[in-house]
Amino acid sequence: MLAIIATALAALIGLAVVAMGTTGMLKPQFFMGFGIPGTPADDPVLNHWLTVKGGRDIGTGLMLLVATALATTSVTGWIMLAAAVMPVFDGLIVLRSKGARATAFGVHFATAAAMVVIAVLLLIA
C-alpha cells in the first residue's frame, strides 16, 4: 500500500512540474511569481531564459513520470531524490537575487522537502 501511495505522489509531482513547465513555455511571465524580483515582465531576454526554465521543468516532470510508470519504487525514489536538487537551487537563486524569503522557503525549499519525503517513502516501500 505504501508503494502505491508513494508512486501516486511521485506521479503528481511529475504532472505538476510538467504543467508548470508547459505554462511557462506558453507564458514565460508565469515564472515571475516564483521569487526573482525587479525585472520587467516584458523583458524579451528574461522571457527567453524563463522559456528555458519551462523546457527544463517539462523534461524533469517527464523523467519523473517515466520513472513512476516503468521503474521500480527504489529507482523512482533515487530519481526523485536527485531531482529534489533543482528546487533547492531555485530557492538559492531567489535568495541570492534578494527575492522574497517566503517564496524561497515556502515554494522552492518546501517543494524540495516534499520531494525528499516522497523519495524516502519510495525507497522504503
Descriptive report:
By secondary structure, this protein is mainly alpha-helical. The protein has one domain. The chain is 79% helix and 0% strand. The chain is built from five helices and no strands. α3 runs antiparallel to α5 (101-124). The N and C termini lie close together (8 Å). The mean pLDDT is 92.
Helices and strands, in N-to-C order?
A: HHHHH
Strand content: under 5%
Query: What's the N-to-C terminus distance?
Result: 8 Å
Helix count? 5
Gyration radius, rounded? 15 Å
Mean pLDDT equals: 92
Helix share bin: over 70%
Total E-strand runs: 0
Which class of secondary structure composition applies to the elements?
A: mainly alpha
Question: Which blocks of ≥5 consecutive residues have pLDDT under 50?
Answer: none
* Shape call: globular
State the major sheet.
Answer: none
What does the oligomeric state look like here? single chain
Any idea how many domains?
1
Give a quick summary of the entry.
The chain is an all-alpha fold and 125 residues long.
List the helices and strands and how they pair.
Layout: H1 2-26, H2 44-70, H3 73-83, H4 85-96, H5 101-124
Transmembrane segments: 62-95, 102-124
Pfam families: DUF4267 (PF14087)
InterPro entries: DUF4267
